[in-house]
Structures are given as structure tokens and as C-alpha cells.
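FORM 12-B: Structure-to-Sequence Request
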């Protein structure tokens, strides 16, 4: 079972025959899984899940949602709360955890291993963490800076891999890495610049397509290319023209 939060939240790998629980129970599962290794009392969970919700939500009981999860996943994954302890998950993965592990392995490696592990991490990215939540849901991901921390980690990994790939002359990988970051940061010019450079090294047609895509993407977010980005594009265009 894996809770995926690098994009819209979803859970994959339900046991055969499991009846997936309701939205609040799913959010509880996400909270416990993202905070794996920690135990939480019912009151702590009620406070976390209540962030951004109407006050009437406080009347709901955490145990009700825990029982929903336990019926779907069993006691091995949702064990009973221990005296003096609290609730936790076991054997429930997250894509955020796999992303962090791959980045750590990249930092410990070099050359091809480093690039391969960064690519492994970035392949998990589908969009802004906890993207497009239901009304009043996942307020804790913003309040506790979980979503922004994950987004920043994606940015760093994408930029690192794009630069590594450009240095190695792998323009396809560089463009792909930049685009994984752009999935999360669609208007970030520090990611757009290596994407344009990778396209320019492929040829004039590729650069023109990449620039059109960039302008359209920025327009979709109510922005236009900055003067520095326009200058960067013009420099690349001239360099390609004189080759």
C-alpha cells in the first residue's frame, strides 16, 4: 500500500477485496503515512485534520476513521493504539519517502549512479504536492510546510539533474529533468532556462517549440517571460543560427 502525495493525493495497492474508506479516513491515512514512525493521540490527530475545516468537524471521532482504515487494511498496517502511545501506520509507503531515499542515494553516489537516482526520484513527481485537494482537506500539509518542503526538494533535484545532464551532453535527460520540476513550478525561470538550453543544443526547431511551450505555459498562469528570459532565448537562438 502506498500513499502518493507528489501530485493529487491517491492511494494505490489496496488489498484484494478491500473497501476503500471515505475521504476523511483517507486523509488520516495520508497524515499517518507521511509522518511514519511517529505516534499520535486521537486529540493530536483531531487537531491536525481539523485545520481549515468548519468547527463542526470537531464532533467527529478519530476512532471512527481509524476503524474504517483498519477494516480496509487490517491490523498489520493500522495497529491498535498502545497505552500511553498512539496511532501509527506500519508497512504503508509514501512516494515522498521513496523520493527522499532516492535523493539520499544520489547524494552518496557519483556519475551515472547519481543521475540515475535523481531520475528515479523525479519520476515519482506528478504535480504540486497534495495538489487540488477536496474542500477543507489537507490543510495540515500547508500549515506544517510539508507541501512546500516537498516542492522545494523537487525543484532542487530537477535543477541538479538538468545541470548534470547538460554537463554530460545528454540533452534529452536534461530537458526531461527540467520538465519534471516545471510540473511543480510551471513559471520558475531557473528551470525554464536549462530546458531551453537543452532544446537549443538539439536544434533550431526544438528551441522554437520549447519557446512556444514556455510562452503558452506562462500565459496560462497570467505571466509573460521576463526580460532576462527573453534575452536568454535570443542568445540561444543566435547561437543556433550561426552553427
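FORM 12-B RESPONSE
SEQUENCE OUT:
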Amino acid at each position: 500500500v502506498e500513499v502518493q502525495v507528489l501530485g493529487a493525493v491517491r492511494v494505490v495497492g489496496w488489498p484484494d477485496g478491500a473497501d476503500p474508506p471515505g475521504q476523511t479516513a483517507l486523509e488520516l491515512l495520508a497524515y499517518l503515512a507521511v509522518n511514519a514512525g511517529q505516534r499520535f493521540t486521537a486529540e493530536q490527530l483531531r487537531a491536525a485534520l481539523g485545520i481549515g475545516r468548519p468547527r463542526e468537524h470537531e464532533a467527529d471521532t478519530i476512532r471512527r476513521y481509524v476503524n474504517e482504515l483498519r477494516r480496509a487494511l487490517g491490523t498489520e498496517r493500522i495497529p491498535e493504539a498502545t497505552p500511553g502511545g498512539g496511532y501509527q501506520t506500519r508497512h504503508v509507503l509514501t512516494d515522498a519517502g521513496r523520493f527522499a531515499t532516492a535523493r539520499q542515494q544520489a547524494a552518496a553516489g557519483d556519475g551515472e549512479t547519481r543521475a540515475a537516482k535523481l531520475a528515479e526520484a523525479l519520476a515519482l513527481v506528478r504535480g504540486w504536492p497534495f495538489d487540488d485537494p477536496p474542500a477543507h482537506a489537507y490543510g495540515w500539509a500547508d500549515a506544517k510546510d510539508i507541501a512546500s518542503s516537498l516542492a522545494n526538494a523537487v525543484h532542487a533535484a530537477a535543477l541538479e539533474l538538468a545541470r548534470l545532464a547538460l554537463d554530460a551532453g545528454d540533452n534529452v535527460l536534461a530537458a526531461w529533468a527540467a520538465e519534471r520540476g516545471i510540473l511543480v513550478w510551471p513559471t520558475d525561470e531557473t528551470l525554464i532556462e536549462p530546458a531551453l538550453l537543452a532544446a537549443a543544443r538539439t536544434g533550431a526547431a526544438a528551441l522554437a517549440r520549447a519557446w512556444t511551450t514556455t510562452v503558452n505555459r506562462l500565459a496560462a498562469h497570467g505571466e509573460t517571460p521576463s526580460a532576462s528570459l527573453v534575452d536568454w532565448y535570443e542568445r540561444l537562438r543566435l547561437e543556433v543560427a550561426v552553427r
